[in-house]
Design a protein that fits this description.
Length: 416
C-alpha cells in the first residue's frame, strides 16, 4: 500500500513537473529580429526596436481592448496567455553579417521564426538561411520584388513590393493627369546600386514604357556616395517632369542638397519611400523636402478608415517622441500578423507557424495600414497590400492618393 502511494505520488509529481515545464515554455515566445543597430542606418534599427516593443507590449499586457488584430491584450490566448519577446540582432547593413546573425539566432538562441530587416540585400541572405534551417522568415519592410520570386517555402512578406508600389505611382500619374489636365510625359530615374535600387528601377522603366512615358535619364550611383554633384547635373540637364529616386536616408538628403546647390528644383519628385519616408530625411532636408511625393504602406491621416491608428501611434510616440511612418507601421503590422499566426498555430514550432502564416486571412479593418488585408500567395507575398501616395506638406507626409483616402489635394507643378 505504501509502495502504491509512493508510486502515485511520484507520478503526480512527474505530471505536475511536466505541466510546469510546459507552462514555463509557453510563458515566453522569443522572436529574432535582424536590423541595422549600428552604422549609418542605426536610426532605422532604433526605430524598428521601438515599434516592435510597442506592439509587443500591446499584445502582451492587460489594457482596454484596441480595435485591431491582437489588440485585446493579455498575451496569446491559445497558448495560455504566453507573451512574445523580440530579441534584436545587428546586421550593420551588411548582408554577410545578416547571414551570420540569422544562423546564430536559429542555432544558438533557438528562435522559431525570424523577422526583419529594412534593406532588401540583407533580406536576401537572411531568407536563404531561414530556408536552409526550415524556419519562417517574415519580411516586414523589404520591397525588392525578387525576394518573393525565388520559390522559397519559408519566406513571407506582409508589405507591398516595388512592383505594387510603382504601379500605385503610375496610377497616380494617370489619375492626377486626368484631374488637372497636366499629365506626365517624361521621368528621370536615379537609384542606388543595390538589389533595392536595381529592382526598383527595372520596374519603373517597364511601367514607364507601358504608360508611354519617356525615361530621359537613367542613373545608377554607388550607395552612400560622398558626392552626388555629377548626378545632380545630369538630372538638371534631363529636366524631366518627374524625378523618381530609389535611395536610403543619407543619399536622399545628399541628393536634395546637391540639386539645390546647382539651382535645380524638379517639378515633381516621386520617391520609392525608403530614406525619403524617414523623419531624419524631412528634418535634415527642411524646406527642400516640401512637396516631395512618396509611395507608402501607411497613412497616419487615415483614421476614419483605421480607427486604431491613434491608440497605437500614441503608444509608439510615447516611447519614441515621433509618429509611426511607412517603415515602423509595417513593422507593427508584421508583428501583429505573426503573433496572430503563432496564436492560431497553438505552438511556437517553425512548421506550425509556417502553416498558420500560409493560412492567414486578415481583413484590412483589423490593421492600421490602409491595405485590403493580409493573404499570402504561394510565394509568401501578401497580395492584399495596397499602397498609397503621400506628399510632404508643411513638413508632414499627407495622403493624396487614392483620391477617396486623400486628406488634401496634391500640389502638382507638372506643366503637362
Amino acid at each position: 500500500m505504501k509502495r502504491r502511494k509512493l508510486l502515485v505520488s511520484a507520478a503526480a509529481v512527474a505530471v505536475a513537473g511536466a505541466a510546469t515545464r510546459r507552462a514555463q515554455a509557453a510563458d515566453e515566445i522569443v522572436i529574432g529580429a535582424i536590423y541595422p543597430m549600428t552604422g549609418n542606418a542605426a536610426p532605422i534599427g532604433a526605430d524598428a526596436k521601438v515599434s516592435l516593443e510597442t506592439i509587443a507590449e500591446i499584445i502582451n499586457s492587460s489594457h482596454a481592448p484596441i480595435s485591431t488584430l491582437m489588440g485585446q491584450g493579455g498575451g496569446l490566448p491559445a497558448l495560455g496567455g504566453a507573451r512574445i519577446r523580440v530579441v534584436m540582432a545587428d546586421h550593420q547593413n551588411d548582408p554577410q553579417k545578416a547571414r551570420a546573425e540569422a544562423e546564430r539566432l536559429i542555432t544558438q538562441d533557438k528562435v522559431p521564426v525570424l523577422i526583419g530587416s529594412y534593406t532588401s540585400a540583407t533580406a536576401a541572405t537572411i531568407s536563404q538561411v531561414a530556408e536552409r534551417y526550415e524556419v519562417p522568415y517574415l519580411s516586414m519592410d523589404n520591397s525588392s520584388p525578387s525576394l518573393s520570386q525565388r520559390g522559397l517555402k519559408w519566406f513571407f512578406r506582409t508589405s507591398p513590393h516595388d512592383e505594387m508600389f510603382t504601379t500605385a505611382m503610375f496610377d497616380f500619374f494617370q489619375g492626377i493627369g486626368k484631374k488637372t489636365g497636366r499629365g506626365v510625359k517624361t521621368v528621370a530615374l536615379i537609384y542606388e546600386d543595390s538589389i533595392f535600387g536595381t529592382d526598383s528601377s527595372n520596374v519603373q522603366r517597364a511601367l514607364a514604357q507601358k504608360a508611354g512615358i519617356k525615361v530621359v535619364a537613367d542613373i545608377k550611383y554607388r550607395a552612400n556616395s560622398p558626392s552626388l554633384s555629377t548626378e545632380a547635373q545630369r538630372l538638371k540637364a534631363a529636366n524631366a517632369d518627374v524625378l523618381m529616386p530609389s535611395s536610403y536616408t543619407n543619399d536622399a538628403i545628399l541628393m536634395l542638397r546637391s540639386m539645390n546647390e546647382i539651382g535645380y528644383h524638379p517639378r515633381a519628385i516621386m520617391a520609392q519611400a525608403a530614406g525619403f519616408q524617414e523623419q531624419d530625411f524631412i528634418k535634415a532636408s527642411g524646406p527642400l523636402a516640401e512637396g516631395v511625393f512618396s509611395r507608402s504602406s501607411f497613412a497616419l491621416d487615415a483614421t476614419r478608415a483605421r480607427p486604431a491608428i491613434p491608440a497605437i501611434n500614441g503608444a509608439y510616440r510615447a516611447r519614441n517622441g515621433k509618429d509611426l511612418n511607412d517603415n515602423t507601421a509595417r513593422q507593427v503590422t508584421g508583428l501583429q500578423v505573426l503573433a496572430d499566426a503563432i496564436n492560431r498555430a497553438g505552438a511556437a514550432r517553425p512548421e506550425a507557424i509556417r502553416k498558420a502564416l500560409a493560412e492567414a486571412r486578415v481583413p484590412g479593418e483589423q490593421l492600421i495600414v490602409p491595405w485590403q488585408g493580409v493573404r499570402f500567395d504561394a510565394n509568401g507575398q501578401n497580395i492584399e497590400a495596397t499602397p498609397v501616395i503621400q506628399q510632404v506638406t508643411t513638413g508632414i507626409y499627407r495622403t493624396v492618393y487614392p483620391f477617396e483616402l486623400a486628406s488634401l489635394d496634391a500640389m502638382w507643378n507638372v506643366a503637362g
